[in-house]
Batch of 4 targets.
Target 1
Amino acid sequence: MIRWIDVLKFAKYSNPEPPRRLELPEAAWQEQLSPAQFQVLRQKATEPPYRNAYCRSYEPGVYTCAGCGTVLFDSATKYHAISGWPSFTQPAAKNVIRYAFDSSYHMERIEALCNVCGGHLGHVFPDGPEPSGLRYCLNSESLLRLSLG
């Protein structure tokens, strides 16, 4: 289980080695992604709260990176955080998320990125439910939900 202290250590010292790497030129990303996905994943935009695909969606399945297809989260770890964006307590595996310090907009946060393609997903905060206490607050545009079964 990943805890806040682990997130801070990853961001400060070294993230886990990803399961694979995918690097494309920006022109290829722009061709592959929708305009909204490109803005979020590649330009680090934030979609409007509450008006996104997965904010109020709780169907069973897994959530993958919209850029590279890496499985990032399981729906079993999704919860209603009243933040306006889909929220999760734990990633699907320790090495699928990359963490980075983000001081944009005069805030100190930890950015969550896909560890495979480097796409911006959202941020992680230490105010989630126990036992991990984490809240991965993500943009729906950065995710695709795949149904299981």
Target 2
Amino acid sequence: MSDYRIQGATGEWEVVIGLEVHAQVTSNAKLFSGAATAFGAEPNTQVSLVDAAMPGMLPVPNRECIRQAVRTGMAIDAQINKWSRFDRKNYFYADLPQGYQISQLYHPLVGEGAIDISLDEKNPDASGKRIGVERIHVEQDAGKLMHDQHPTRSYVDLNRSGVALMEIVSKPDMASPAEAGAYLRKLRSILRYVGSCDGNMEEGSMRADVNVSVRKPGDPLGTRTETKNVNSVRFVMAVVEQEARRQVDVLEEGGRIVQETRLYDPDRNETRSMRSKEDAHDYRYFPDPDLLPLELDDAFLAECRASLPELPDTKRARYQALGITPYGAAVLTAEVENARWFDTLLDAGAKPVAAANWVTSELFGALNRLGKGLDESPVGPTQAAELLGLVADGTLSGTLAKQVFEVMLETGQGAGAIVEERGLKQTSDTGAIEKVIADVMAANPNQLEQYRGGKEALFGFFVGQTMKAMGGKANPAVVNELLKKALS
């Protein structure tokens, strides 16, 4: 149970949240036509006769779109309905040439499932919650109206018309902005692992309709509003916070909440009314007469299941079993690119714990500094494995490894070549180290006297001076061992 509450003049209020996420299916074409779906194409260059609703044009389902939706359902342990049906949702809008949208109301492709979320980034195992998913149905997207191209006219771009969407409908199980954000992040991660949606919210290929209502603790559900087409996790959390606050203010002033569709204005950080919310019967749904029901056979379902990759939660558990901390495992599995990069690093022979620590601190820190993503990293996983191997076998100390890594970032050279070329190999030669220790002790008689007089904290001083004298190339473990002997 979430402890998130809104403090009002009449007491505390709870917020109840459900999300309807529209995820564009990764496929070779649109849901019912062969038209392309590339982002950023010139307006009206990706429109087939079916998308434009020319007379006599009949829709044909794209098998890949159905397959991707089924795989997504399997990834959240949802019920897959072997029999499903398309319905017509009737409404007139300028960017919907047919005058109806082909969707699934009564018999969706995917039934109930669930997504596990965590609210504690440092310890993902500590505070989990299961969010129910009511259904996933497939439907076609509408086109896009452009109001800023002409002073008195609106233009229509039909490139998106007919693009395949999965509508993933959660149950109203979320009770705070943080839970809504965690759910959307986790869902996006799963979709990207499965490969059924690229999750690019800024390009509109994943967007959320945010349903919010408020109530006094223990009361029945309140009237909800739906804020449409929210395109970032941060904005979804802001919508929950602002809309819940607005509803509380309305109710406490004696008003009532109207079931309506709203829009979010990120510049003003507020929601505003768009239109009264229609109910399902207002759309006059009926089975689409141009499309036969979908019937999935066991072989198709088996192929879908066999094609699923290792999913985020399973991968995180595997990493933790290798000794990686829960936080490290969560960071490495949050994005599919991170996990694939790290798996390649392990396959190249890197030790799991050392590799995880290096990736999450050194590599991510360097890329952040350079303003680059992991896909742009000048150092690949096999190069990183070579560097970590030189640390593991004692060739490089941690300090020297940092120096070598910086050169790798600048030049793209391999770690071994840099070590040879620049003479950066760590020395464990006891004779050479003992000579430097003797010189350091001779040069610092006062500190030597104080140390032998009981000031043991000066041990670090002697380690530092020895390492400095050897240009950071001495093996720290050998230095410590020889210094203890020399100073005693």
Target 3
Amino acid sequence: MEIPHSNIESEHPKFALPVDSEHKATEFRLFSVAAPHMRAFHLSWISFFACFVSSFAAPPLLPIIRDNLNLTATDIGNAGIASVSGAVFSRIAMGTACDLFGPRLASAALILLTSPAVYFTSIASSPVSFLLVRFFTGFCLATFVSNQFWMSSMFSAPVVGAANGVAAGWGNLGGGATQLIMPLVFSLIRNLGAEKFTAWRIAFFIPALFQTLSAFAILIFGQDMPDGNFKKLQKSGGKPKDKFSQVFYHGITNYRGWILALTYGYCFGVELTVDNIIAEYFYDRFNLKLHTAGIIAASFGLANIVSRPAGGLISDAMAKRFGMRGRLWSLWMVQTLGGLFCVILGQTGSLSGSIIVMIAFSLFVQAACGLTFGVVPFVSRRSLGVISGMTGGGGNVGAILTQLIFFKGSKYSKETGISLMGVMIMCCTLPICLIYFPQWGGMFCGPSSKENATEEEYYLSEWNMNEKEKGFHQASLKFADNCRSERGRRMDSASMRSDKTPPTHV
């Protein structure tokens, strides 16, 4: 019987970008706004950018705020730690929420829940209240998880590293942009006649409003998956409604996620730490003006416009030739070099030298962030959100520990703390060599010789027989087939030479 042409089109909707069997885009067109893939990309990075601006709006104005609220060095250190500690558990929760409800609702809800804390910063009147508003504002950094989950849901394996890298990198630009934005807004308000202790308070309404508007944009224009929103797909049977217990279990029992959480703590965690200390470091050590220190500090975060996306692109390029092993090797090398530049930064005594080394350090440490999330999407298909949340939460834990150990109080000078932080980066990057995928191998070992060491076997192991009988595993089966590119050019050609036939596709 002939199938009507209209039915074919309804089963396989047309997209502006070429797609794979999961309808994930196989191309990443940066300047396109085509729905749903590129629209999700732009909504994702803009909302994350807004949250970053809110979370780090205070550090550029700390010299003014500390005089107004009589903050000590310990108070400032505690507030910096509070600003990143809230996101530790919220990122894990966000990952689970993305798995169960979709990135659109999860991110918009968190943004709206945390925006009042940004508004309330304007009425902080003591060290305790300042610490509390920074703590609750920091929860919004969990939008990073929805950012990466969304990109991994919209883009296919060959370009997912680039999509994740650019989306997160451009979002992280908020950490640098706020170093320029807040002093500028503060100056404009002063020029309009406000006292300086009033001007910094009014300035916080700008990031708060930006954050609020980004949440409404996501709700109005966003879409969870290429084929629709989670709720609609679950009602139509296009996506099975998963169980929290199973999603969470398969995430936390995958050791690869824990290693990535540790290593991410010393690339992204270091980035958060530097965002908190760098303006004050240049202001105090080199006796600079507040605006000048802000411009220099901004260059660290603004490097994300190229550095983190470059990490994602490098990850994809290495995977194309060497497979997953290429992704792991490039991550280890880039992050280790970032640690080396961090050590040098703390030892550099001249202003010009410090700026040059800081920029080199920022390029490598932020590229390592992009390289990390070139690996994350392949750790688990069923528990992608949990793995993303664990890794993202690890970044915040790293920031907390680093600030507690090296930058709280006066135990170490800031320059000594920076050098010791570099040593910590290099040490905590070593466990990457322990990550091993049976179907692709690891840094030092090739893939397993067992016949069942395939992409299908790896991803279908997350589903039990009862779930497979109900067909819940079908999306994982498609994903496994689309991940064959992680074998790399060399491994694929070797497989073809030994079998005389190319690998079969489901």
Target 4
Amino acid sequence: MDKAVIDAIREKEQLPDSMTDSEIAQEYKGTYTAARAAVSLDHKPLDQVLADTMGKIFPFMKRKK
């Protein structure tokens, strides 16, 4: 499992720093959580894509940052 995926799982699941990368890889290998973490590295969340698209179509719907 890639280090970036392990870091994403650690952040998302709020795992303690005392848990080693190999323990996380062993516990989360082949799980839905690991798959979502891997996808999130390459893609924006769907709700963000929808918000960006709606902002382009309807300028008054842009999110205030």
